[in-house]
Amino acid sequence: MIEFVNQFGYAGVGLLIAIETVFPPIPSEVILTFGGFLTTYTSMTLWGVVSSATAGSLTGAALLYGIGRWLNPHRLQHWLNGRLGKLLHFNSNDVDRAVGWFSRKGTFTVFFCRFIPIVRSLISIPAGISRMNMGKFFLLTGAGTVIWNFVLVYVGSLAGESWERISDYMHVYARIALIILMVLAAALVYLFYKKRF
Q1: CB burial string 38-49: b at 16+ within 10 A, e below
Q2: d(Cα 194, Cα 174) in Å, to the nearest integer?
Q3: How far does Cα 29 stand from its chain's mean position?
Q4: Nearest 5°: phi and psi at 16?
Q5: Number of structural domains, the chain?
Q6: Among 10, 116, 124, 147, which residue has the fewest nearby CB atoms (within 10 Å)?
Q7: Contact 57, 22 (CB under 8 A)
Q8: Residue 122: partners with Cβ closer than 8 Å, 6 or more residues away
Q9: Running DSSP on this structure, what letter comes out for residue 109?
Q10: How far apart are CA 28 and CA 13, in angstroms?
Q11: pTM of the complete model beyond 0.85
Q12: What span, in angstroms and rounded, lies between the C-alpha atoms of 169 and 97?
């Protein structure tokens, strides 16, 4: 990834971030902090890196939002009324409740989830499923993404040749966030099935 960004500059940053948005395990922290480091000794600028990274993020988010629109509540309800729903003990009313919750809390969720590793990518799918207004979705996604990208690129430029140390710290942050999310998900699954049975 580092060699790719080094060779293709802004286009490399944008393409890798777009791929990272669709495939969350790719670490955007490495791409962005290294991009910040490149601004210290190449013609690349901080805002150029931030802009290309944001364009890549929006491209990936648009793809995942489109997948969510394709899934739509009716298709999910159809699946849950079949064998899959019986196996997982879900029903079509669960879809209505989830879509209703996202419609009420979606604005807050889409913006703040942009600062949480892995979730910042996946949040685009429920936004699409609930048919969140596209203008609002891209405005919130863009705002959250610009802040995330700017912070990492700026810190990478300040760190200079020590950019990898910042990347390591962000990797620890990502791991902690992932562990917290897994615990929360397990708690929600437990509460759901406890209530259902």
Answers
A1: bbeeeebebebb
A2: 30
A3: 12
A4: -65, -40
A5: 1
A6: 147
A7: no
A8: 24, 64
A9: H
A10: 9
A11: no
A12: 38
Q: What tokens were used for 9?
A: 């500059």
CB-based contact 39:157 (threshold 8 Å) = yes
CA pair distance 12, 31, nearest whole angstrom: 9
Query: Domain range holding 177?
Result: 2-196
Please give the single-letter amino acid code of residue 185.
Answer: A
**165-174 long-range contacts, Cβ below 8 Å, gap at least 24?**
166/29, 166/33, 167/27, 167/29, 167/30, 167/33, 167/34, 170/27, 170/29, 170/33, 171/27, 171/29, 173/117, 174/27, 174/29, 174/117, 174/118
At 13, is the secondary structure helix, strand, or coil?
helix
Kindly report, residue by residue over 81-117, the tens digit of the pLDDT. 767 666 655 666 666 666 676 777 777 788 888 887 7
For 93, the token pair is 């009313």
Backbone angles phi, psi at 36, to 5 degrees: -65, -40
What are the structure tokens assigned to 43, written together?
A: 């013609």
The owner of tokens 């992932």 is: 178
